[in-house]
Amino acid sequence: MVAESEDLGEEIPASWGKYDIPKMIAEGWRARIKWAKNRPYLTLRFGDQERGLGVLDDRKLELFKEMYPNLAGSLARGRLKPPKRRDKILTTPLKRPEEIGSSYQPSLETLNWYHYFKNNGFTGSLGDFVNDVIYNYFSEKNWKLAIVKGPS
After folding, report:
1. Which of 48, 56, 83, 130 is least surrounded by Cβ atoms within 10 Å, i.e. has the fewest?
2. Do residues 31 and 64 touch, judged by C-beta distance below 8 A?
3. What's the CA gap between 47 and 137, in Å, rounded?
């Protein structure tokens, strides 16, 4: 199913024969290189319509540019190398801070406050109490922690 091009002396892929490419070009279709499954594909696109012309390699790209030079410009932006991965700010893994261990010794006043609230309906542990007090303290001051990623 591979036809021979007389003037180019190259094999024309059979998938290109499925479409009337010169007519599509006249109607405004544009060529582009689309990456899928880690491979480059040659496609023709018009609005939200797209027609696949198969997997692309250097030889097919040059053949397409020779056969349809007026579409070569729309392929200039495409590349045959995989696109570079961009760091996404939200994909940074976060981990819990290391536990302090038993080095924390609450003062007698802190323990008295904890027992007072425990006797008046607080159901959490001492650690929950300390965390709540600290959180509420900084919330009242309208202070917030932020994770900022600097330049790499």
Report:
1. 48
2. yes
3. 56
- DSSP track, 79-124: -SSPPPPPP-GGG----PPPP--TT----HHHHHHHHHHHHTT--S
Q: Into how many domains does the chain fold?
A: 2
- Predicted confidence at residue 31, as pLDDT, reads 84
User: What are the tens digits of pLDDT across the range 112-142?
Assistant: 999 999 999 999 899 899 989 998 999 999 8
Residues 69 and 114 in one domain: no
* Same-domain check for residues 96 and 135: yes
**pLDDT tens-place string over residues 70-86:** 766 666 555 556 656 66
58 located within any domain: yes
According to DSSP, residue 31 is labeled E
| End-of-domain residue from the set 19, 42, 75 | 75
Three-state secondary-structure class, residue 24? helix
Q: Are residues 95 and 35 in the same domain?
A: no
Q: What is the reported pLDDT for 13? A: 81
